[in-house]
User: Fold this.
Amino acid sequence: MLFVEFRFFWFFLAVFCVYWSLRDNRSRKIWLLLCSYVFYAAWNWKFLFLLMGSSALDYFVGLMLARTKNPGARRGWLILSLCVNLGTIAFFKYYNFFVSSAAVFLAWLGLPASLHTLNIIIPVGVSFYTFHSMSYTIDVYRGKMRAVTSILDVACFIGFFPQMVAGPIVRAAQFLPQLQSLRKFSNADVRGALVLFLVGFVKKACIADGVAPTVDKYFDSPANYTAASAWLAILFYGIQIYCDFSGYTDMAIACARLLGYELTLNFNFPYLARNVAEFWHRWHISLSSWLRDYLYIPVGGNRGNRWFVARNIMITMLLGGLWHGGAWTFVIWGGLHGLALVVHREWQRRVEGRAPSRPLPGVPGSPDATEDVPPRRGPFGWLAWSLTFYWVCFTWIFFRAADLERAGVIAKSFVFWQSPGTHDLGFRMIWIVVLLGVIHQLNGRRVFSSWWRRGSPEVFAAGYGCAFAVVLLFIPPHYAPFIYFQF
Assistant:
């Protein structure tokens, strides 16, 4: 059930109406949990038991962490939670990857190998909801929050349908207090959420799905196309993945806000970044902050000499790349970003003569979530932006390519302008770039903030209806699944 499908609109309308008609908080949470499980079961009902089991396990582990005082026993309970959650991800996402990689390695050594892969279906959103779940038990273990005594609250937090399958990755300390208080209806929040949902809908249905056929055509057979087509396809993929993922995030935040809940910020104009560290402060903020707090800092963070810090960055980014899927292309993508972060730190230390900035952001919404990045103005600012955007687009090659062979062909075309192909993709879809620029400008300047906040309900309804009708004229005939659903 996709956010852009009409059946979701009917589903959410029922959720919304019944939710706000209920007077007590417990009834609302029971209704939300039932609807969340129905939403997830619409993908594959068999994996619903996996979600329920993860929720029950971490609820129980949280209680045991609160009741147990012995440090060794508490560590054992945490290890149990981590092993089960990470083991679930490892089996569904990485079993075939490790088996096939081991078979190739053994063949390279000349050793016989009889390893077999399995026909495994990856549960939708398994990487996201297990990260939600693990953040709860880790924070309880660290003493950053108290264990929750209501299994209903824990199950609602992990299974909340707007953010369950593709984020944002919400922390328990941010979301559970919202569940424990009765939410109040707000006309202003409803209006803002509807506008945000429409923006996300345009990003996904009009822009991301609009360029998807062109991108797929090139990446399926890159050797047939010219180097200019490679540049165009990679630019379009950068637009596609941003609009697809940020569009989903906008719609998820909007759906949660319509129910009275606030989800964390996940994007902040990442393609305006002027260095790679700033890019990661703007792109998939909830994941990068999660990696910072639960991986980068535990392995050492900024402690030690610069070689240890570089090692910690590379470990974090390599595993962050692997989190996206069991393929060497994702590992290389993460490694390239890790390398760029290390180089950027050295540049700050040696050339700019100032303390290196944090490679990853803090918890969105917290005081340390962002770090001031001195703006570069003039030609150097444009140069910094151009180099950063070029590097990010280059790394998208490995993120999107089906295998290393095709990634090599595309990278050669992109970097050296060398390609054996003669076909051109054409520039018929260039209007997508223009539309994206317009949306950025309108969103950045908050052009419509006055009418949707202050206008009468009639004016808002008429304007929203007209805008939605215009959007429907430009959507493609078929919707593609959200890219991050596979992760």
